[in-house]
């Protein structure tokens, strides 16, 4: 679905999410696996596996698997359960984003002579 409105904030394109059952089942299974690995990491951390070299690497591997599993859960959720929405945004020039006057875009010189080439990097902000 798309609209022809071109004013700021109008929805230009809206595609609803698929909401597939297979993705929901996959998210539930990945969440169960996530809980198992979090429990295993917590047990290993409390029981002192990190005090040995191989145990420390094992805990690091479990932590990596936890975050990779979480990334898959979030990617599936974003792809299958969030709608694709594009809104119309107002296009601005560079100095409008910085809230500076148009004549102050090049900056202000700091000194004379050798310092004449040095410009101030932070432009003077002012309220509209």
TrEMBL record:
Transmembrane segments: 21-46, 58-77
Keywords noted in UniProt: Membrane, Transmembrane, Transmembrane helix
A Pfam family annotated for this UniProt entry: DUF7318
Listed name of the protein: Uncharacterized protein
Organism encoding this protein: Haloferax litoreum
Upper classification of the organism: Archaea, Methanobacteriati, Methanobacteriota, Stenosarchaea group, Halobacteria
